[in-house]
């Protein structure tokens, strides 16, 4: 079948490891389902995979793509439109599957969604809301799910409080802005260029700032995916007793912790990763009820996936990059 995959790990030149070609058709284990992929979105995780981060060397070649939407390819529900939940855990573990130490995301152990077909455990598909297109639904399983958990499970924010989103144009950032605005937060955003800050305003930000700019007042919660480049600003921007929710470190993983500020200001630093099946169901319902649609900056044929990877590597994002079949 057609697939976009990582041939081997390449830490320094990730795009050199990218292949657009053919991979064997998947087998469907008992209790799993095959999904004919209609759309899948690009995440920074796919660039990490090309670099060999978070994946064992023996797992290559690996089809990329952590999320997607498509149509069930067999069984009694064949033809049903579905959204994928990409956290694959032990079926016997109940409760929060993101806390299962043996859980993996698609593309870490199991093949991903940038292909004609993907196979996942039956519990990892959810019905696609009719109001979301395949391209929109494809954004939900990773970036949007991560934003939803950061905001509604981890931050303790209430409507009317102020949130700061570090980064304006990324997949997670644009989701945080749209979800935060719809939920009644005062949404502040930093962005690296005027164009990116304008995008945040269009998506619902109440105020935007240059990266590192001093804010008019400290905020109730900061949302971090950037890491080293913005960490100091995040620590200074949270009010006493405030929360910093962290789900990524694009610019580097080793920010100085600023421990004195951490205890003196009684800050809470909370890590967050992906989300549960239940949270994905809540996200899909929220988007449906509130009429929220993901910001898609580029929609490309999957055969042109390399162009999307180049855009993300260069930081030229304007929301999600989606590949369609
Ligand atoms: N833990 C999880 O489950 C999870 C899930 C999804 C993503 N993540 C992580 O979250 C991060 C973002 O992922 P994504 O898919 O949203 O990536 P993306 O679409 O490429 O977005 C990158 C974002 O980072 C900002 N940025 C990058 N370098 C920066 C710098 N030097 N200074 C300031 N801002 C910078 C950009 O801000 P501008 O708009 O200002 O350019 C943009 O908002 C990645 O590290 C990813 O691995 C984690």
Describe it.
This protein is an alpha/beta fold and 325 residues long. The chain folds into two domains: 2-139 and 294-324, Quinone Oxidoreductase, Chain A, domain 1, CATH 3.90.180; 144-271, NAD(P)-binding Rossmann-like Domain (Rossmann fold), CATH 3.40.50. Helix content is 27%, strand content 27%. It has nine helices and 18 strands. Strands 3, 5, 6, 9, 10, 17 and 18 form a seven-stranded mixed beta sheet that branches. α3 packs across α4 and α3 crosses α8 (277-290). The two termini are 12 Å apart.
Labels describing this entry:
Quinone Oxidoreductase, Chain A, domain 1, alpha/beta, 7-stranded mixed sheet, 6-stranded parallel sheet, 9 helices, Rossmann fold, 325 residues, binds NADP nicotinamide-adenine-dinucleotide phosphate, 2 domains
User: How far from one another are the termini?
Assistant: 12 Å
Radius of gyration in whole Å, from Cα?
19 Å
- Could you name the CATH homologous superfamily of the largest domain? Medium-chain alcohol dehydrogenases, catalytic domain
Helix content: 25-40%
Low-confidence stretches: none
Largest beta sheet, briefly? 7 strands, mixed
CATH class of the largest domain: Alpha Beta
Number of helices: 9
Number of strands: 18
| CATH fold topology of the largest domain | Quinone Oxidoreductase, Chain A, domain 1
What is the strand content? 25-35%
Structural class: alpha/beta
What is the 3D shape? Answer: globular
Q: Domains counted in the coordinates: how many?
A: 2
Bound ligands, each once: NADP nicotinamide-adenine-dinucleotide phosphate
Compressed to H and E, one letter per element, the order equals EEEHEEEEEEEHHEHEHEEHEHEHEHE
CATH A-level architecture of the largest domain: Alpha-Beta Complex
- Chain-averaged pLDDT: 96
């Amino acid at each position: 079948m057609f697939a976009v995959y990582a041939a081997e790990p390449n830490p320094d030149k990730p795009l050199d490891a990218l292949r657009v070609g053919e991979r064997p058709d998947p087998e469907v284990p008992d209790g799993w389902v095959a999904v004919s992929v209609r759309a899948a979105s690009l995440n920074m995780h796919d660039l990490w995979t090309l670099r060999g981060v978070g994946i064992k060397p023996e797992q290559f070649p690996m089809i990329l793509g952590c999320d997607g939407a498509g149509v069930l390819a067999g069984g009694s529900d064949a033809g049903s439109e579905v959204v994928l939940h990409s956290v694959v855990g032990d079926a016997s573990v109940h409760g929060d599957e993101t806390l299962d130490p043996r859980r993996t995301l698609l593309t870490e152990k199991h093949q991903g969604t940038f292909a004609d077909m993907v196979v996942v455990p039956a519990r990892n598909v959810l019905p696609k809301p009719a109001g979301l297109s395949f391209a929109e639904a494809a954004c939900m399983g990773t970036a949007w799910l991560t934003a939803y958990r950061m905001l509604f499970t981890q931050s303790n924010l209430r409507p009317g409080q102020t949130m700061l989103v570090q980064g304006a144009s990324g997949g997670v950032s644009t989701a945080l802005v749209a979800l935060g605005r719809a939920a009644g937060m005062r949404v502040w955003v930093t962005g690296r260029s005027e164009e990116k800050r304008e995008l945040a305003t269009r998506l619902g930000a109440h105020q935007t700032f240059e990266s590192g700019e001093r804010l008019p007042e400290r905020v109730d919660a900061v949302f971090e995916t950037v890491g080293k480049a913005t960490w100091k600003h995040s620590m200074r921007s949270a009010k006493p007793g405030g929360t910093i929710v962290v789900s990524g470190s694009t610019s580097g993983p080793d920010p100085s912790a600023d421990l004195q500020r951490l205890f003196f200001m009684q800050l809470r630093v909370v890590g967050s990763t992906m989300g549960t099946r239940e949270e994905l169901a809540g996200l899909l319902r929220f988007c449906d009820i509130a009429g929220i649609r993901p910001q898609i900056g580029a929609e490309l044929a999957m055969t042109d996936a390399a162009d999307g990877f180049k855009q993300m590597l260069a930081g030229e994002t304007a929301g999600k990059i989606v590949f369609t079949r």
